[in-house]
Amino acid sequence: MHLDVFSEGDSLFHRLDPRAKILVFVPFTFAVALTGSIRASGVYVLLSLICAAAARLFSVELLKRQLVLNGFVFFLWLTVPWSVAGRPVLQYQSLILSDAGIRAVLLVTLKANALFLLTCSMIATTEVFALGHALFHLRVPGKLVYLFLFLYRYIGVLHEEYSKLFRAAALRGFCPRTGCVTVRTMSYIFGMLLVRSYERSQRIYQALTLRGFRGDFPMLTHFRYQKADVCFVAVMTLVLAAQVTLWK
Fold first, then answer.
1. Is residue 95 included in any domain, yes or no?
2. Verdict on whether the full-model pTM lies above 0.90
């Protein structure tokens, strides 16, 4: 499973120091998540589009992922505007479409797309292992970083094991349906997946121990801030401060 599809490129964001991108990304996500203004959320969407353009991310892969995100948001549009109390905009028998419901879902839509594009622009343009290296430099607890790196490394292996078990069940005539047989079979599959995952983790730990692993990986190279990184952090900090001050 190739999870870092956007990390290969030669744009401004690809060349930036991962630490600089993380330092900008974290306060931006908090600002986007905590704002209650639709206008401010619209500005954040515009800023995220500019970042995505600078990172040269506009492609079929980005569109696919954004369609999945907005597919979930679409279900909110079908339910929330009709269930939030407010001034009626449209009424059909006992169903009332309120302005407060529309505003709430519009706010969620803008925030979700802004955070998605910011994440793709600032985080997904960094290789996963470089991201872990940057987290070490930023004094994130080592155990959390190793957990993140091992999760990325072996989530593909876990998916392969699940595919093998599911194919084995399909070759024996299993066809997922709504019923007790399907529930029982899927329970067996996930149970076997749990057992195999535990056994695999023991073999991995033994292999790492035999190779001298003592709980940390030595870092042979280190990041160095360049002028472009300092300018990026300074400009984005000013933009965020101006945005928060304007719409607070």
1. yes
2. no
